Amino acid sequence: MKRIVVMISGSGSNLQTLIEQIHLTDVDAEIVGVIANKPDAYGLTRAENAGIANVCVDSSLYANDRVAYDQLLISTIEQYQPDLIVLAGFMRILTDEFVTHYLGQLINIHPSLLPKYKGLNTHQRAMDNGDSEHGVSVHFVTPELDDGPVILQAKVPIFSDDDADMLAQRVQVQEHHIYPLVVKWFVEGRLLMRSGKAVMDDQCLGPNGFASDE
User: Fold this and answer.
1) CATH number for the domain including 58?
2) Which of 11, 52, 112, 132 is the most exposed place for a label (fewest CB within 10 A)?
Protein backbone atom coordinates (compact mmCIF):
# COMPACT_ATOMS: atom_id res chain seq x y z
CA MET A 1 0.00 0.00 0.00
CA LYS A 2 1.59 3.24 -1.19
CA ARG A 3 1.30 6.21 1.15
CA ILE A 4 0.38 9.60 -0.35
CA VAL A 5 0.53 13.10 1.13
CA VAL A 6 -1.40 15.86 -0.65
CA MET A 7 -0.43 19.51 -0.22
CA ILE A 8 -2.99 22.26 -0.84
CA SER A 9 -3.65 25.97 -0.42
CA GLY A 10 -7.31 26.38 -1.33
CA SER A 11 -10.57 24.63 -2.13
CA GLY A 12 -8.99 21.27 -2.91
CA SER A 13 -10.98 20.26 -5.99
CA ASN A 14 -8.11 18.09 -7.25
CA LEU A 15 -7.78 16.65 -3.75
CA GLN A 16 -11.46 15.67 -3.85
CA THR A 17 -10.94 13.89 -7.16
CA LEU A 18 -7.93 12.04 -5.74
CA ILE A 19 -9.97 11.01 -2.71
CA GLU A 20 -12.76 9.65 -4.92
CA GLN A 21 -10.57 7.97 -7.55
CA ILE A 22 -7.58 6.82 -5.47
CA HIS A 23 -8.25 6.87 -1.74
CA LEU A 24 -11.72 5.30 -1.85
CA THR A 25 -11.13 2.75 -4.61
CA ASP A 26 -9.23 -0.50 -5.06
CA VAL A 27 -6.04 1.32 -6.12
CA ASP A 28 -3.25 0.06 -3.86
CA ALA A 29 -2.71 3.47 -2.26
CA GLU A 30 -3.95 5.60 0.59
CA ILE A 31 -3.91 9.34 1.15
CA VAL A 32 -2.42 9.34 4.65
CA GLY A 33 -2.23 13.09 5.14
CA VAL A 34 -3.33 16.45 3.76
CA ILE A 35 -1.22 19.52 4.51
CA ALA A 36 -2.37 23.09 3.86
CA ASN A 37 -0.40 26.29 4.19
CA LYS A 38 -3.53 28.35 4.86
CA PRO A 39 -5.83 27.69 7.84
CA ASP A 40 -8.99 28.53 5.86
CA ALA A 41 -8.23 26.13 3.00
CA TYR A 42 -11.47 24.24 2.31
CA GLY A 43 -9.43 21.21 1.29
CA LEU A 44 -8.83 20.59 5.02
CA THR A 45 -12.60 20.12 5.41
CA ARG A 46 -12.65 17.73 2.45
CA ALA A 47 -9.92 15.68 4.13
CA GLU A 48 -11.77 15.73 7.44
CA ASN A 49 -14.97 14.55 5.75
CA ALA A 50 -13.05 11.64 4.19
CA GLY A 51 -11.46 10.66 7.50
CA ILE A 52 -7.96 11.67 6.37
CA ALA A 53 -5.45 13.15 8.81
CA ASN A 54 -4.90 16.83 8.04
CA VAL A 55 -2.93 19.76 9.36
CA CYS A 56 -2.24 23.39 8.55
CA VAL A 57 1.37 24.50 8.52
CA ASP A 58 0.64 28.22 8.32
CA SER A 59 3.03 29.89 5.90
CA SER A 60 2.00 33.38 7.02
CA LEU A 61 3.95 32.80 10.23
CA TYR A 62 7.13 32.33 8.19
CA ALA A 63 6.69 35.06 5.60
CA ASN A 64 10.35 36.09 5.79
CA ASP A 65 11.95 32.70 6.32
CA ARG A 66 11.25 30.23 3.54
CA VAL A 67 14.02 27.90 4.68
CA ALA A 68 12.61 27.56 8.19
CA TYR A 69 9.12 27.04 6.82
CA ASP A 70 10.20 24.30 4.44
CA GLN A 71 12.15 22.57 7.21
CA LEU A 72 8.94 22.56 9.26
CA LEU A 73 7.11 21.16 6.23
CA ILE A 74 9.65 18.36 5.92
CA SER A 75 9.35 17.42 9.58
CA THR A 76 5.56 17.43 9.26
CA ILE A 77 5.58 15.33 6.10
CA GLU A 78 8.00 12.81 7.57
CA GLN A 79 5.44 11.91 10.23
CA TYR A 80 3.36 10.36 7.42
CA GLN A 81 6.26 8.46 5.79
CA PRO A 82 4.93 9.04 2.26
CA ASP A 83 5.95 7.30 -0.95
CA LEU A 84 4.52 10.17 -3.02
CA ILE A 85 3.81 13.85 -2.37
CA VAL A 86 1.15 15.43 -4.58
CA LEU A 87 0.99 19.21 -4.94
CA ALA A 88 -2.65 20.00 -5.63
CA GLY A 89 -2.90 23.77 -5.79
CA PHE A 90 -0.14 24.38 -3.25
CA MET A 91 0.49 28.05 -4.01
CA ARG A 92 3.92 28.51 -2.55
CA ILE A 93 7.36 28.26 -4.13
CA LEU A 94 9.34 25.53 -2.41
CA THR A 95 13.03 25.88 -1.62
CA ASP A 96 15.64 23.93 -3.54
CA GLU A 97 16.45 22.06 -0.33
CA PHE A 98 12.86 20.85 0.02
CA VAL A 99 12.57 19.79 -3.61
CA THR A 100 15.92 17.99 -3.55
CA HIS A 101 14.91 16.15 -0.38
CA TYR A 102 11.88 14.66 -2.17
CA LEU A 103 13.21 14.54 -5.72
CA GLY A 104 11.42 11.83 -7.67
CA GLN A 105 8.62 11.63 -5.07
CA LEU A 106 7.09 15.04 -5.74
CA ILE A 107 4.59 15.82 -8.52
CA ASN A 108 2.68 18.94 -9.44
CA ILE A 109 -0.15 19.96 -11.75
CA HIS A 110 0.22 23.22 -13.63
CA PRO A 111 -2.48 24.93 -15.74
CA SER A 112 -0.61 25.33 -19.01
CA LEU A 113 1.02 23.25 -21.70
CA LEU A 114 4.52 23.42 -20.28
CA PRO A 115 7.04 24.75 -21.09
CA LYS A 116 4.59 27.52 -22.02
CA TYR A 117 3.39 29.92 -19.34
CA LYS A 118 5.25 29.01 -16.20
CA GLY A 119 4.09 30.85 -13.09
CA LEU A 120 0.73 32.55 -12.58
CA ASN A 121 -2.19 33.88 -14.69
CA THR A 122 -1.69 31.20 -17.32
CA HIS A 123 -5.22 31.32 -18.78
CA GLN A 124 -5.18 35.05 -19.43
CA ARG A 125 -1.66 34.88 -20.84
CA ALA A 126 -2.67 32.16 -23.30
CA MET A 127 -5.62 34.24 -24.51
CA ASP A 128 -3.59 37.45 -24.68
CA ASN A 129 -1.05 35.63 -26.84
CA GLY A 130 -3.75 34.58 -29.32
CA ASP A 131 -3.29 30.84 -28.68
CA SER A 132 -5.86 28.50 -30.19
CA GLU A 133 -5.36 25.87 -27.48
CA HIS A 134 -4.39 25.72 -23.83
CA GLY A 135 -4.23 22.96 -21.29
CA VAL A 136 -2.69 21.40 -18.22
CA SER A 137 0.50 19.50 -17.41
CA VAL A 138 1.44 17.06 -14.67
CA HIS A 139 5.16 17.01 -14.01
CA PHE A 140 7.81 15.91 -11.58
CA VAL A 141 9.00 18.82 -9.45
CA THR A 142 12.60 20.01 -9.75
CA PRO A 143 14.22 23.09 -8.19
CA GLU A 144 13.49 25.23 -11.28
CA LEU A 145 9.96 26.67 -11.13
CA ASP A 146 7.46 24.67 -13.24
CA ASP A 147 10.38 23.15 -15.12
CA GLY A 148 10.45 19.47 -14.10
CA PRO A 149 9.96 16.70 -16.66
CA VAL A 150 6.41 16.54 -17.99
CA ILE A 151 4.52 13.29 -17.37
CA LEU A 152 1.15 13.93 -19.02
CA GLN A 153 -0.67 16.82 -20.68
CA ALA A 154 -4.26 17.48 -21.73
CA LYS A 155 -5.32 20.14 -24.23
CA VAL A 156 -8.46 22.25 -24.50
CA PRO A 157 -9.53 24.67 -27.24
CA ILE A 158 -9.65 28.43 -26.72
CA PHE A 159 -12.79 30.01 -28.17
CA SER A 160 -13.14 33.61 -29.32
CA ASP A 161 -15.72 34.45 -26.65
CA ASP A 162 -13.77 32.90 -23.75
CA ASP A 163 -12.76 34.79 -20.67
CA ALA A 164 -10.15 33.57 -18.18
CA ASP A 165 -12.74 31.98 -15.88
CA MET A 166 -14.40 30.04 -18.69
CA LEU A 167 -11.05 28.75 -19.87
CA ALA A 168 -10.02 27.85 -16.33
CA GLN A 169 -13.16 25.77 -15.88
CA ARG A 170 -12.48 23.89 -19.10
CA VAL A 171 -8.91 23.21 -18.02
CA GLN A 172 -10.01 22.07 -14.57
CA VAL A 173 -12.18 19.33 -16.09
CA GLN A 174 -9.05 17.91 -17.68
CA GLU A 175 -7.08 18.29 -14.44
CA HIS A 176 -9.56 15.99 -12.75
CA HIS A 177 -9.05 13.39 -15.49
CA ILE A 178 -5.28 13.28 -15.69
CA TYR A 179 -4.03 13.83 -12.14
CA PRO A 180 -5.53 10.64 -10.65
CA LEU A 181 -4.25 8.73 -13.69
CA VAL A 182 -0.67 9.89 -13.11
CA VAL A 183 -0.91 9.07 -9.40
CA LYS A 184 -2.18 5.60 -10.31
CA TRP A 185 0.78 5.06 -12.67
CA PHE A 186 3.22 6.01 -9.90
CA VAL A 187 1.49 3.75 -7.37
CA GLU A 188 1.61 0.84 -9.81
CA GLY A 189 5.35 1.30 -10.29
CA ARG A 190 4.98 2.20 -13.97
CA LEU A 191 6.20 5.78 -13.50
CA LEU A 192 9.40 7.15 -12.01
CA MET A 193 11.97 9.88 -12.42
CA ARG A 194 15.43 8.80 -13.54
CA SER A 195 18.42 11.03 -14.40
CA GLY A 196 16.19 14.09 -14.67
CA LYS A 197 13.70 12.38 -17.02
CA ALA A 198 10.18 11.08 -16.56
CA VAL A 199 10.21 7.34 -17.28
CA MET A 200 7.03 5.40 -18.09
CA ASP A 201 7.10 1.62 -18.47
CA ASP A 202 10.91 1.86 -18.62
CA GLN A 203 10.79 4.32 -21.54
CA CYS A 204 11.95 7.93 -21.24
CA LEU A 205 9.13 10.33 -22.05
CA GLY A 206 9.53 13.21 -24.47
CA PRO A 207 9.14 16.89 -23.61
CA ASN A 208 5.35 16.69 -23.76
CA GLY A 209 5.10 13.57 -21.63
CA PHE A 210 3.04 10.47 -22.27
CA ALA A 211 0.38 10.51 -24.98
CA SER A 212 -2.31 7.88 -24.65
CA ASP A 213 -6.04 7.30 -24.80
CA GLU A 214 -5.96 5.34 -21.53
Assistant:
1) 3.40.50.170
2) 132
Q: What percent of the chain has pLDDT over 70?
A: 99
Cβ distance 51 to 213 under 8 Å?
no
**What does DSSP say about strands 197-200 and 84-87: parallel, antiparallel, or unpaired?**
unpaired
* Number of domain units in the chain: 1
CA distance 185 to 77: 22
Cα–Cα distance, 180 to 82 (Å, whole number): 17
Global pTM reads 0.95
Considering the domain boundaries, does residue 210 fall inside one? Answer: no
Which alpha helices (DSSP H) does the chain contain, by range?
13-18, 42-49, 66-78, 96-101, 122-128, 164-187
Computed over its alpha carbons, how large is the radius of gyration of the chain? Answer: 17
Q: Which residues are catalytic?
A: 110
CA 172 – CA 198 distance, rounded (Å): 23
Q: Which amino acid is at 63?
A: A
